[in-house]
Amino acid sequence: MSNREFVALGTASQVPTRKRNHNGYFLRWDNEGFLFDPGEGTQRQMIYAGVAAKDITKIFITHFHGDHCLGLPGVLQRLSLDRVSHPIEVYFPASGLQYFNNLKDASIYYSTANIKPFLIEKEGTIYSGDNLTVSTMKLDHTVDSWGYRIEEKESVSIDKNKIKALNIPGPMIGELKSNGQLLLDNKTIYLEDVSSIKKGQSLSFIMDTRICDAAFKLADNSDILVAESTFLEEHQNEATSHGHMTTIDAANLANKTNAKLLVLTHFSQRYGEDADFVGEAGKIFKNVIAMKDGDKIDIRKQILTK
Which domain range does residue 171 map to? Predict the structure, then answer.
């Protein structure tokens, strides 16, 4: 079975702390490797987490505040240093093109990596592969900021017992799946007679934003909802004025969108290690995790692993 895991490379907002690196995340999804919002120090955090430069296939930037992009120069240069041969697609808000170019050319290096920038100008699907799609919507931050949703496409699950009961030969199952029907012993068998639709897995990545309609749409029925939780409830006014969510905001978002697992991250440095983000969110949404640097989540099982 293919590997799917979400890795926290860094979980601090704005500035790193002794135990939390700048923001940064890596998602392994079958043959894809998605790097999200690489803040300062991401290249070093990748080494600790066992993420190689060659594992990256796409990079997603939500916005161009420093804690979400200052690690990009090092990552791009590492791709060249390691002679990564496959193209690396970088998705980011079109309004930040100048910042992307500045980061890409921040210092002298021998550039060999095939970096393909994709400028986001409108909401909708920005990537569609064989078995997954990536879509984006504009959030409500103090600058141009976009959230992402990764969703596995629906698949057909064949009921082996029904296949056996109808005596359908194995070699003919492919024909049935391709054509939607099969003529066997003068009887037409339809695909829906022996199968069911299997809903694909989904992960929503919602960083710096106030609560907004786009956040709800992106998070709708997510298996994994990764959400910023910069402030605790006591600092709700400050969160709103600075374009952020509190732990309670994130919990309400998960609860109202029927998410299966809420993953909290992007914590303000004002809170120590004992801050009870899980306890506060748990009053509203029970299945919640507060990420620490290096934590990994098994996407298929939706559990924290070490």
Answer: 156-195
